[in-house]
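Quick start: load a record and inspect it. Here is Spondin-like TSP1 domain-containing protein:
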Amino acid sequence: MRVFCTQEKLPITFQSCVVPKDCQTSEWSEWSPCSKTCYSATSPKGFRTRTSSVKQFPVGGGKECLSLEEKESCAPQGEGVPPCATYSWRTTEWSECRVDSLLNQQDRRRGNQTALCGGGIQTREFYCVQVNENLLSYLNTLKEKEAEKPLANKLCTGPTPNTTQLCQITCPIECDVSSWTAWGPCTFESCGDPQGKKGFKLRKRHIINEPTGGTGNCPHLIEAIPCDNPSCYSWQVVRQGECTPDNGSECGSGIRTPEVQCTNSNRNFVDRNLCREAIYPVPVLCDVPCPKDCVLSKWSDWSSCSYTCSGKTTEGKQMRARSILAYAAEGAAQCPNSSALQEVRSCNEHPCTVYHWQAGHWGPCIEDSSVATLNSSTSWSGEATCAVGMQTRKVMCVRVNVGQVGPKKCPETVRPDTVRPCLLPCRKDCIVTSYSHWTLCHSSCNEGDDTGTKQSRHRVIIQLPSNGGRDCPDTLFEEKDCEMPPVCSNYRWKTHKWRRCQLVPWNVRQNSPGAHETCGPGLQTRG
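Running the structure step on this input writes:
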C-alpha cells in the first residue's frame, strides 16, 4: 500500500518524448513569368517556376519535406510577342593580296617592296550582327533599322570565319614577239586609190606571248621602207616544181619551174588576172644526176640576212649550201669542188631608211559624255554598274636609229589607233556598319576609382572605296564620359538577435513540469 512509502521516494511516472510530425508546407505560389520573352520555333523553350514555404519542419521521424520549387517549360503567350533575335557572323571584304606580309616574316628588310608577285595572303575582319528576317521586319515596324550594327561577339555561338586566306598575284609577263618576216613587195600605200610612183615595202612580226596589261606594252610589229614603182599585186612562189632535164633527156642539166599564185599587198591569194603586169618568176636551173654521176643534195633554205638594210658600211648577205650524197664512178660526171657547194647572194639591198609607227601607252579611261546614256551610278546596295569611257595615246612616225619624223614618212594604212573605247572600273563606295551600342559603365562609387569612367562605341568598314567611290568616314570610334551617380548608395545585411535555444518542440514541453532538459543539441533562429 502507498501509505507505507514516503513521498520523497516516489518514482517518476512520466518522461519527455517527441511526437512525430510530418513536414507541412504552404500552398504553391503563382507561376513566375516565362523566362523567354520572344518567339522562336527552333531555339529551346523557356521555363517558369513556383515555390512554397515550410510551415512545419518534420520532427520525430515524420515525413520529410518535398521540393519547395517546381519548374516547367513554357513559351510566351499572347499577341505582339516579338520573334527571338538570332545572331550570325559577318565579315568585311578581303584585303588586297599582299606578298610582302609573308616575306616580312622571313626578312624584315623586304617590307618596302611593293612590286612583288607570287603567293600572298589576304586578311579580313569579322563581327557579330543580328540577322533573322522576321526580326528585321519587326524592327522596321518600330522604325528601328540598326539590326546590322556590330554587337558583342559572345552573342554569336557558331565557329568564327577565317580571317586569312592564301592568294596569288600573277607575275608580269614580258611581251615575246617573233622574228621579222622577209620584206614584202613594193606596194602602193592604198591599193584602193593608187597614186604616184612611190610606195612602201613592209615587213611584219607577230606576238607570241601577250604581256601583262595587253598588247600596248609590246614593241612595234610593222616596219616600212620607201620604194619606187609600186604594184598592188605580185606573184608568190608556192613551191618549186620537179627538175626537168633539157632536150627530153632522163638526166643532166635542166630547169625547175616554180608554182606561183597571185597575191595582193596583204599576201592573200587573188585572181591570177590581177598579176598581168607583175614580173613572173623565172625558172631555176637544176640537175638530175645520171647513173654513176655524183649525187648532190638539194640546196638548203637561204639563211637570214646578215643586215636588215644596206649602207656605206653594211651590206646584207645570205648563204645556202648543199652536200655530196654519193661520189661519181670512174668515167662519170665528177662532183664539184667545195666552193661550188655553197652560194652567197645579196639581200636587203634597200637603204637603211626604215620607218615605223611608235605608239605610247594608253592613258586612263575617261568617261565619254557622248555615250552618257549607257552610264549609270553605283547604288548603295552594292549593285555595280559601270560606264563606257575613252582612252587615248600618242602615235608618232619614227625613223630607226634617228628619231621622230613627219607622219608622211610612214604608211597611213597601218597607223595604230589613237583612240579606243574602254569600260570604266566600277565605282565602289565605302560601306560601314552602324555604330555599336555604347559599352557599359562600371563605376564602383569608391573614391579614386577611375575604372569604367569612359564608355565607347565603334563601327566596322565592310568595303573600302575604289575608283572614285565615296570615301570612308573619318571617325570609326567614339568615346564619352560616363554619367556618375550624384550619391553612391551603400547597402548591408542587418539581423535580429538570436532567439532562445530550443531542445524539444514547445508543444511537448507545454504543461510538462517534469521536462527540465538543460543541455544537449538544440536550435536557434533569428530574422
